[in-house]
Write a structure and sequence with these properties.
By secondary structure, this protein is an alpha+beta fold. The chain contains 7 helices and 7 strands; from the N terminus they run H-H-H-H-H-E-E-E-E-E-E-H-E-H.
């Protein structure tokens, strides 16, 4: 399956860092973020600053950081702290070729390219959160969205992966089969019979309990719990797919 080239992912990350800063600057830090119950705009900025610090420490040291800077130092502006951390993350990820070996939490991809892809989507999803908090319609590049559909299904869902040191997440299911289509691509998700991790393959299902088809940006937002099913073509029942994604990403409609 073709993935976006790495300069595209780096450019996306740089643009999302800038966009988040622009959106957050005039926003009330106490503004609720609808997709993340209990979060505010200020919480989101501190979360992303912490993510940037952790991943930068991980990439630069090649050692899983168990402690990292999660909050701005006393007296420092949170947005300025976020921008400095995010810019440092960008520089670290741009410092080596995407194929260069790098420690990650995903066993199938131990390269700098993994982090470029993961951070491009991390910052895109949370930029969408800020837009929705501000009452703005989210916009996601279709090419990035199609890759993001693949990422959330094959990286997060297929192996129940979560960032270390958290354990693999199992989902309770009854062997349902789901098919997801967008941008000429197709993924079949076979849920476990009982408790386990789903199997995700880039092929069509002969039969499925539920099918989801739509524009890549609409499928992307729905899979991440950031968009409704209304713009999608849905046949059968797909609630089990969303529940499984909520379990592995911690975003329940969140």
């Amino acid at each position: 399956m073709t993935k976006p080239d790495q300069p595209f992912l780096l450019d996306t990350l740089r643009a999302e860092i800038h966009g988040i800063g622009v959106l957050a600057a005039p926003a009330d830090p106490d503004l609720p973020v609808p997709a993340c119950p209990g979060w505010t705009a200020g919480t989101l900025i501190r979360h992303l600053g912490g993510v940037a610090h952790r991943v930068t420490d991980w990439v630069d040291s090649q050692i899983l950081p168990l402690e990292w800077e999660r909050e701005p130092p006393a007296g420092q502006d949170a947005l300025g702290w976020f921008r400095a951390a995010a810019d440092g993350l960008f520089r670290s990820l741009a410092s080596r070729p995407p194929s260069f070996p790098c420690q990650t939490w995903f066993p199938a991809d131990r390269t700098y390219g993994f982090w470029r892809r993961r951070m491009a989507h991390e910052f895109t999803v949370h930029r969408v959160d800020l837009e929705q908090a501000l009452g703005l319609p989210p916009v996601v590049d279709p090419e990035l969205a199609a890759d993001g559909v693949d990422e959330v299904l094959t990286v997060w869902l297929a192996e129940g992966n979560r960032p270390a040191p958290e354990e693999t997440v199992s989902v309770a299911a009854a062997g349902e089969v789901f098919e997801v289509r967008c941008a000429g691509r197709v993924w079949t998700v076979r849920m476990p019979s009982g408790t386990g991790v789903p199997d995700v393959r880039p092929d069509a299902a002969d039969t499925a309990d539920g099918r989801v088809t739509g524009a890549p940006e609409d499928v992307y937002l729905w899979l991440w719990g950031r968009g409704p099913a209304d713009p999608l073509s849905v046949t059968g029942e797909v609630a089990g797919l969303r529940a499984a994604l909520a379990a592995v990403t911690r975003y329940a409609g969140e």
